[in-house]
């Protein structure tokens, strides 16, 4: 990261505190965006192969134009499929990528009580072409 007077601190999974002196250096905004992106990468739950008995599943949310990836037991498929009709067992470790959703957005948990699923959400390739999710141009 370039030297500058900016700093990003992860407060929790959804809050990033950013301090930046815009007069300090020309690379300040870029440095903050890089730090925030690095912090977001640390949150991902389901990158690559799933561990143990878990299998990779995905679903395309056409209403919000996002793809979600999760790791779950095959035996839980029917339970979650009731709430997510598009839930599909993946044939690779990154199913959203070849479907045109390469850009990581966030990691969320959907559901309640004992029917909850944590998943990584991805945007389509053109959704973040001009502006990152933190509002900085790319």
Explained architecture:
The protein has 138 residues and is of the alpha+beta class. It has 2 domains: 6-41, no CATH class; 54-123. The protein has 2 helices and 7 strands. It has helices at 28-41, 77-83; strands at residues 6-12, 15-20, 54-61, 66-73, 88-89, 103-112, 115-123. Strands 5-3-4-7-6 form a 5-stranded antiparallel β-sheet. Strands 1-2 form a two-stranded antiparallel sheet. The two termini are 15 Å apart. The model is unreliable at 1-26, 35-41 and 129-138 (pLDDT under 50).
What is the gist of this entry?
By secondary structure, the chain is α+β, with helices and mostly antiparallel strands.
List the defining traits of the structure above.
globular, alpha+beta, 2 helices, disordered N terminus, five-stranded antiparallel β-sheet, two-stranded antiparallel ribbon, 2 domains, 138 residues
């Amino acid at each position: 990261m370039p030297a500058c007077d900016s700093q990003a601190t992860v407060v929790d999974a959804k809050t990033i505190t950013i301090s930046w002196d815009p007069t300090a250096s020309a690379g300040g905004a870029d440095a903050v965006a890089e730090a925030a992106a690095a912090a977001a990468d640390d949150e991902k739950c389901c990158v690559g192969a799933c561990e143990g008995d878990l299998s990779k599943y995905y679903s395309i949310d056409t209403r919000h134009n996002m793809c979600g990836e999760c790791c779950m037991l095959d035996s839980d498929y029917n339970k979650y499929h009731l709430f997510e009709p598009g839930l599909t067992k993946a044939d690779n470790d990154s199913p959203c990528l070849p479907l045109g959703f390469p850009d990581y957005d966030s990691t969320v948990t959907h559901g309640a009580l004992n029917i909850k699923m944590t998943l990584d959400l991805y945007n389509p390739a053109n959704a973040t072409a001009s502006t990152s999710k933190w509002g900085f141009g790319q």
